[in-house]
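fyi for ur records
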Amino acid sequence: MQAGPERARQTIPDQRPETPARPKSAFARWRDRDHTRGNLLVSLGVLALPLMATSLFGGVVFQLVDLKLVSGLGEQAMTAVVVTNQSLRQLFFMLVMGASFGSQGLIARSIGEGNGEQADHVAGQTVLMGLAFSTCVATLGVLFPRELLSIMNVSDEVLAIGVPYVRLVFLLNFGFVFINLFNAMLNGAGDTATPFLIAMVQTGLALLGEWALIYGNLGMPALGISGVALGIGVGQVGSIALVSRVLFGGKSRVHVRMRHMRPDPKVVRQISKLSWPPALQMIGGFLVTVFFIRVMGDFGERAQAAYSIGLRLGMLGPIICFPLAGAVATLVGQALGAGNVRRAWRAMGVGILVHGALMWTLAILLYRYRVPFLELFTQNQEVIDIGSRMLVWQAGSFALLAFFFVFFRALQGAGDVFVPMLISLGNALLISLPLGLYLARTRGMGPDGLFIAQFVSTAIGTVLTGAWVATGRWTRARQPFAAATGA
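which gave:
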């Protein structure tokens, strides 16, 4: 009795109209754009604008407000924080950046080939590497904070104030590490919008946390310099929660699952192969900065304070513009993954034009308003005089970095990292350090000798790296993931 109606129901076609696919939101279209085709200037804008906004909130706004908050604790506390951030913290930052470059390059190539599973696998191995690295850094900072800060030749007063800060910064490095690696993963996949939204949340929470914990606002205890590190930690905890939801919840172009986090030595070696040269390259510049901070200590506490503030202000240009060069790395990597060498060349050319215009504009602003910038953070005339002379040379370096950053990041996106590393290391060890010591001490130029040496080194590094780019060998670099897997 039931067979007839049942058969009828099976044979009658479904007359209901198909549900149309929901149109993508503007955010989704921005996030999911295919960067292996179409207008390069548009692709550069889609990638770079969120990256630059991320740096604006997470870098420029944070750096300026953070420095203003810390300056209220006095010059010695400010010196302890800035020296730690621009030297000790900068060391493991360089290592993390190296790992992020390797991961971004591999993911960009994979996306360019249309292999999303491969990109997800690289991301999972990157997470494992970040966890291992963060554990080592935390252990080092907890056990040897005084020894680490003593390396910087700071005064006994700065040392006494800074040791608790160093310990907390190293202990709380997990958030710092994973945010940078997460950004690199999504950047390589072509999604720079999601990291921007997370950076806004992180910056707001971090500055609110610092304001509350440094001075005891909102009913919190007044922890002074320790509140600086803990406030930053507040922002990192919030951002890690969002990052985990995006990365493991399938809400981005990279989706990490448990199978992607099973250790894969081949992929780890390949990420490391592409990571250690740029990391070592940046460490060379870092060592110059650390050594010059030590030398500045010989010229007095005021000179060291001026150099510390000048470093912070001098980082504003790169913080804003370096992400644009990072967008070029993604475009170059995806173009080469898709086999389009001509597009890779054109991406670099468009990047230089846009990046150069921005950096030259910032160079003019830094030179023109260097004294008002310095007066935001100190009223000591000696500090202002030394810092002003430093920023003159920093502004000149901006004009050169307009080219260097694009060269460096484009080569990284192509997987060509060894020769640029040799150029930068040789420049740091054979030009910056000996020339700086000669001018500062032998020629008696003091701090100005160090400023000039850094400018000369930047000029030489830019010319040599540009010459290597011009050979075109980076376009013939072997496909990196294939080298790892034997594909």
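The radius of gyration is 24 Å. thats all i got for now
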